[in-house]
Structures are given as structure tokens and as C-alpha cells.
């Protein structure tokens, strides 16, 4: 299993920081979905600078922010403090989540969970199952093997993983890439509520990601 490596948020240009503080479109849908389901305990897994942490905390969820980056967690904590929002912030590795069994109602993990290799993904999947309550849901994204990154001549770790090699905050970070059949295999212990392969038009001409919503049985 490869070693985990955090995003280097200190390399982010000041003018780009605003982008990373704007919640993703689907997060508003998830706020409403999970409110209607009566869910309260929310985990922002891979919180980055805190864009989804702040959104869910404002909406009244008991909010937990978690990331490998000390810098990211500190910025999230500061932002929450400025808004007088109560957020439980922790630094750590998603391979070993510091939460009790059956303690979380809902998890959002956007463009983070795939920063490992195949063995790591299998471990994280079991951690999601462990911390979620019965009928708890997790919305996550995974890089698709149709995306440009999978086609780059980057170092291979295993049949699904490459180490990203380029200037920027993700340099040296492992990236796991999936296809439909691999997603079904990874999350066989969950009910898969939704799978969408979405192309985002930005950066190097577009990037394909799978958006997956799973529920613990």
C-alpha cells in the first residue's frame, strides 16, 4: 500500500482559493436529501479548506471535518471560528478514521477518496462501512479510467493507480482510477443508490469522474 500524501494547499494561488471555498453543486442536493432523511451527524471526509464543512454546519448538522493536511484543517477551523460555527476538526489518514463504529449519518468525500492505491481503496471502503450508521449514506467521487490523467505517462503503482507527476499541489499524490465494474466490486457490501460518470470541462480539456452515492445496509 502506498503512503498517503496530503494536498499542498500552500502552493495554491491566492486567486484560486475562492474556487476551493465554493461548495460543489451536488452538495446542496445532499443537504436537502439528508435533512429530509433526518440525518444529523455529517462527516466532511477530506475537508480541504472547508467549503462543505461550512455549508453543512450552517445548515444545522453536527459537523466533523477531517483531512490529512494540517494546513487545510487549520484553515477550516479558522473559517468556522469566524462564523461562530461549532465544528469538530481532526487531522489524520482516511485509512484509519478516528470515529466510533456506527457514529456517522452521512459522509461527503469529493475528489479525495481516490488519493490512494487499490489496497488503500479497499481499506477506506471498510472504514466507511464501519463508521456509518445503518442506512447512513456516503457521496463520493472517483477518477474514471476515461479521464486524461489515466492516459498520462505517470509511474504505475498497480493496475488502477498512478502517481501524479506535475507542478502543483497534487504532485506526488497517488490517484486511483475506476471503471463501472470496479465500482460494483468495491462497494458490493453497500446498496449503490446512484452512479454517474460526469465530465467536467476545466484544466486540460476535461476530466471524467464517477459520482457515487452508497448506503449502508
List the keywords.
single chain, 217 residues, alpha/beta, ten-stranded mixed beta sheet, 5 helices, globular
Characterise this structure.
- The chain has a single domain, classed as Rossmann fold.
- Strands 1, 2, 3, 4, 5, 6, 7, 8, 9 and 10 form a ten-stranded mixed sheet that branches.
- It contains five helices and ten strands; from the N terminus they run αβαβαββαββββαββ.
- The longest helix has 14 residues, at 118-131.
- The mean pLDDT is 93.
- The chain has 217 residues and is α/β, with parallel strands linked by helices.
- It has helices at 25-36, 51-58, 70-82, 118-131, 180-186; strands spanning 41-45, 62-67, 87-91, 104-109, 132-144, 156-158, 161-163, 174-178, 190-200, 207-216.
- Tell me the overall shape: globular
Number of helices: 5
Note the main sheet: 10 strands, mixed
Mean pLDDT: 93
CATH T-level fold name = Rossmann fold
Would you state the CATH class?
A: Alpha Beta
* Alpha-carbon Rg, integer: 16 Å
- In CATH terms, the superfamily is Vaccinia Virus protein VP39
Brief description of this entry?
This protein is an alpha/beta fold.
How is the topology of this model organized?
Blueprint: H1 25-36, E1 41-45, H2 51-58, E2 62-67, H3 70-82, E3 87-91, E4 104-109, H4 118-131, E5 132-144, E6 156-158, E7 161-163, E8 174-178, H5 180-186, E9 190-200, E10 207-216
Parallel strand pairs: 1-2, 1-4, 2-3, 4-5, 5-8
Antiparallel strand pairs: 5-10, 6-7, 7-8, 9-10
